[in-house]
User: Fold this.
Amino acid sequence: MPMSVWITCFAASWIFSLSPGSGSVFSMSNGLNYGFRRGYLGAIGLVIGLWAVFLAVVVGLGVVIQASPIAFNVLKWAGVAYLFYLGLSQWLSKASPITLREKEKPRIGSFEIIGKGISLNLINPKGYIFMLAVIPQFITSGMPLAPQYIAVALTMAFTDLVVMAGYTGLAARVATRLKTESQVNTLNKIFGALFMLAAIVLATFQQTTS
Assistant:
């Protein structure tokens, strides 16, 4: 991959990672509820899900999703339902004062939090459509494809891990300042509402054809 193309890919990856969405809400929610070290596992799940979407687009499944209204809508409404479920769970979660000691934070299994991150990206059709539009822009014809795909995938993973570390760390830092049940309950409802808002936005997302 020519350096000029990679630099463009690098810049686009930062924009993609920094843009507000369900991933950023997910990371902040994890930082709030589980602290940075445990919550950051969710970012790893997001990247694994991102790679899975990337691979699906590369092998042609993304084209199938784009071309088939049925496949697109199944994926879309699965994403809407999952985001709404996450939001409702956060909204109804039992509030308790956050302590400064990491071991006293609510616990969640490592595989569970990683799995949530993977699922969040796997069932978001916007990710597939975005990849279909973006990946070809960074692929140079006439050059070996595999190294170029790997470079793009690793670049996107790097920026996503850095950005989600920021979101998770910021929320974890805020969490140490929450001393009352009312404060935690309010923040849980805010994040729950954001997840449900993301579900509503996804529900309005329409498939485009060209």
